[in-house]
Each structure stands twice: as structure tokens, then as C-alpha cells.
Amino acid sequence: MLQNTQPASISFGARVRKSPFFDSTRNDGAKAFSVYNHMYMPTAYADGTDEYNSLVNDVTMWDVSVERQIEINGPDAYKLVRMITPRNLEKCEIGHCLYIVLTDHTGGIINDAVLLRLKPDQFWISPGDGDVLLWIQGVAINSGFDVKVFEPDVSPLQIGGPKAPALINKLFDGQHDDLRFYRARETSLNGIPLVIGRTGWSGEISYELYLRDGKLGNKLWSIVKKAGQEFNIAPAAPNCIRSIEGGLLSYVSDITREDCPYTIGLGRLVDVDQDIDFIGKEALKKIKECGPSRQLVGIEIEDDPIIAPPENPWPVLNGKGMIVGHVSRCIYSPRVGKNIGFANVPTAISALGTTIKIAAPDRNLNAKVSKFPWIPAERINRQAS
To answer: What's the pTM?
Structure first.
């Protein structure tokens, strides 16, 4: 595939925030960064395939401080959280984590996020890239609810891979071996205050250590790195190959403000029959009744291995050569043995097995609509089972 081979760089400066692990990531070889949620995020330490192999075979550590937490607390915190998401939270207990979407009045997706409930009146929302804090603060201002909405001093460090449970066992002397998938609890490590969650965007079994004191970031990084040596730990960045294999969607890439939950296959996160009035309820009711006009689908692309995801969306063409959709992300998967990815297309051409044509930068490609995920995200410890 035609790729832009011109060298690129990113400038570090005071205007963009640095994570508590920033110095450690640079010392351990981070060679590329992006800006995400107004913060520098490492995007590469080694070749993408090497990082993929570390993730699926051993254990990796990621600086994901760019998941800037939004805290909602106060007597009416539960009411406000229920207002901003269409997911039914009636069974969200203390210690639960839930994957949610945040929708606007048209049903469009403001962002997707992980919701953590730490106390009856204390929630964290861990969103993708976007100014979600400002949006929630704007909703809260005129809600009449007695709440505080702010960004706490919280910075996640993710540990992911089949050897992650063994590393967590070693770090915490077995204290959190019983932590279930999408559960979280407060804890500490060598005096460092944390929340540990069985969450993460790796596709492999993962934990996130939510650091609660930004001054201790490099200390935490060092402790995890040292403990992980016997498990062949490696620093890594969010991995495109594994995320596509596992059907993990990326906000802005695979999900946009123009998409509703039904478009991207997340209708399970919407309950239009619940009694409360959440933002976008009426719009989502109508979309559910009529069906979405577009669908995000999995695709398998016929071509030589695609070694890097598209820098810009690739157009999807109809039989007359007109643009009717786009490929958001695609990559070659070593384990699937195919080029796989996602495309946003009209519902009329979204059925499994449908052939579509893609306008890549240098030539047209043939693809077919495929079921995804190709390799489901791990929830259990493979090495212990």
C-alpha cells in the first residue's frame, strides 16, 4: 500500500499537558506521541507487530493518563449520571464499572466511556478523546442538581496481556485475585493511593491502576516495571491490530458525533423504556422504531498486508463509483491472516457477505462485510484455565 514515508515529529512544550508517567515513557523508549484529551500520549515504543506480540503473549504496561477522569459527586450525582447516558444504571452498584455512551439531543454520540461507581454519590467517567468534561459541566449548570463536576488527580496505568493476572498477583500479594471483570476497588501499592479496575482497552485481559497522586507517577511506573521483568513486560501503546481484532471501537475514528448507538452496534447500551428522561431519549426512540440508516460493519479486504491504518478515512464506493461510506480503520491481523477493519456504510449494503469497493490512496480494493469481533476480547486468565 502507498504510505507517506516523510519523517514527522511532534514538539513538546508547556502548552500541552504531560502525564505523571511522561518521563518514564521517554526513558523507556517511547519514540512517537500524539495529543489526546489535551495531553501527550505515547503511540509507539517498538514496531507495531512487536508490541502486538508482547500484548498477546506476555504482558505490557501503557501510559493511558489521557483517559482524563471526570468526577461527579454530591447528593444528586446519580441523577445527573443517569441523565447523560441512555444505559439503564438501576443495577450499577458500588464497585461496578460499566461501558456507556453519552448522547446528545439528536441521539448522536458525544463520547463512549467507562463509568466507575466508587461510592453512592461518587462516580468517575473515563472517556475517549474529546471535551467531555465541559459538556457534562454544561449539562449540570442548568440541571438544578446538587453536584460537583471536575477533573480529579487521577491517571490510569494499564497492564494488559495473558500474564497480567500473575503480575497483579505479585504486586499485591494476591489481594486482588478475586477482582471480577468490570469491577473496581480502592487500594494502595507501597503507599501509593490507587483504584484498581479490571478494565482496559487492550483486547487482552487487563487491569488499570488509577493513580490518585500525580507526583508518584514515575515511582509507580518503576515498581510495575521491576515486578514485571520475570513476565517479559514491555512498555506499549494502544494497539491497532488487537483493538480491531477484538471489535474495540475508537472514538473519532470509528465513532463520531453523527453516529447513534444503533449505527455502531451498541443498541444494547440504550434503554428507551426506562422511566427517567435521559438526553436524546425521544430521538433514540424514533431511531429504534425505524432502524438506523447506516451501520458500522466489519470488513475483510483483499490485498497484500496493510501495515499501517489509514491516515484518513478511505471512501467506500457504490456500483456507480459514488462515495457512499468510508473505512474508518483497517490493518493486517497476523492471527486472522487477513486485512480486517471497520466501514461505515448505508444499511442497504451492510448485510454479511456483501461485497464493497474501497478507494485506497493508490488503487481500488475489494472487500466483503464480515462478522466481528474476529478474536473476542479476553475476560478470563487463559494461562490459569
So the answer is: 0.94
